[in-house]
Amino acid sequence: MLLLLLGIILLHIAGLVLLFVSTIVSVWTSGETSTADLWINCTTTNAGYHCDPASAGEWIQAVQALMILSIIFSCLSLLLFFCQLFTLQKGGRFFLTGTFQILASLFVMSGAIIYTVMSPQWVPETEAFGYSYILAWVAFPLALISGLIYVILRKRE
Amino acid sequence: MGRAGPMRGVWLGINQGTVCFLLLSCFEALCRVASSIPPLHFLSPPCTRTRSRVGLFLDRLLSGLRHPSFWELPAKPETMLTLLALASVVLLGIVPEQSQAIVIYTGWERHALLGSDIRLSCSFFSWRWTSEDVTFSWTYRPDGSRDSISIFHYTGGAAYVDNKGPFRDRVEFVGNPGRRDGSILIKNLDFNDNGTFTCDAKNPPDIVGRPSSVRLLVFEKVPIQAGVITGAIIGVVLGLLVLIVVIYYLMRFLVARRVFSLSVSKHGKKKKEGSQQRQIKV
């Protein structure tokens, strides 16, 4: 029982950490000498490393908002899990926790999809997707699975 | 730059007050000294009749000065302090009135849409009254160029606009020189109008000042500021969450109250029936 609990919490925290890294580190697009999105665009020129704030287009702002919302909902779901662990009656399901975690995963998915579809508008063809983008896509199934486990899980003893 | 307006008023007030006070006290002192000279004893009644505060203060001061101990022992702190304060105020007050420079205000940066009109405002601050010979002049320097051309000049009550340069027939004077406003209106903006506009105002005899510049940026469509949409989306979603939580607890509260009131009425009915039966029995 304790092992199960620990495993679930670890899964949740892993998803949360991936979300944090994906949102904070600005490497959704990376080229040979430059990295760009979500917050700053940095280039390495002859003069050195130089960073500008990311373009203020509507789609980038939407992706920023969705990533931040997913972090908020995942944190809330962790909090709710600990709350419900102590207040739920025997045999009850962690519906609220599961709902918040599934919502968080949906937000990450929407953010990643919007970025995938819209980024060709401002990213040149030669640049590839960076590791923050990949981490966002990895965080999505983790969060989804974690949410589903919470919904199915029943409280014992 | 100099002292700000209200501070300057206070300073002037102090100056005037001190000068008056000093003049009065000088007059009183002269009067007393004169009346103490034997041939001028006739002056003493009118001099002493002025029982003003200044007179009393001077009395005390002069009596203190005449006392031999005044010159031997250190003087009373109050008298010394007052003397010191007077001296410093007098010295500092007789500072010649500085001529402050004229300060010109324009915006810092202006954004405009292609084809629209824009009003570039320019006003100035000067310690002198607005003279009739006040002049405003606007010059324009395109982005990336080092030369500036003059596009507007107001002098002698008449405004002269550009009639040869890039702004011919597009500049209009919309300012009010009487109110120190030298704003111009530029119509039908184009991408070539990107650049720096400098306003220079002179208010004779106050002519020393630094011209102020405003940068004009012309856009096809006005860009959205970074973070507006982000904030909006986050705010809306969190707001909905809070609303759902509130509504949920409200419904629970209302349902609980309804259940409570129903149970109370049922309990009440049972009690009534019980009492009726008892009454009938009796």
TrEMBL record, chain A:
Predominant location category: membrane
Gene3D superfamilies: 1.20.140.150
Pfam families reported in the protein's UniProt record: PMP22_Claudin (PF00822)
Transmembrane keyword on record: yes
Subcellular localization(s) per the UniProt record: Membrane
Membrane topology: Multi-pass membrane protein
Gene Ontology CC entries for this record: plasma membrane
Keyword line: Membrane, Transmembrane, Transmembrane helix
TM spans (from-to): 62-82, 94-118, 130-153
Keyword Nucleotide-binding among UniProt keywords: no
Record family assignment: Belongs to the PMP-22/EMP/MP20 family.
Protein's UniProt name: Peripheral myelin protein 22b
Source organism of the structure: Cottoperca gobio (Frogmouth)
Automatic annotation (TrEMBL), chain B:
Membrane topology summary: Single-pass type I membrane protein
Signal peptide boundaries: 1-36
TM regions (residue ranges): 228-251
GO BP terms: myelination
Gene3D superfamilies in alphabetical order: Immunoglobulins (2.60.40.10)
UniProt KW keywords: Disulfide bond, Glycoprotein, Immunoglobulin domain, Membrane, Signal, Transmembrane, Transmembrane helix
InterPro entries xrefs: Ig-like_dom, Ig-like_dom_sf, Ig-like_fold, Ig_sub, Ig_V-set, Myelin_P0-rel
Protein name: Myelin protein P0 isoform X2
Native source species: Cottoperca gobio (Frogmouth)
Gene name in the database record: mpz
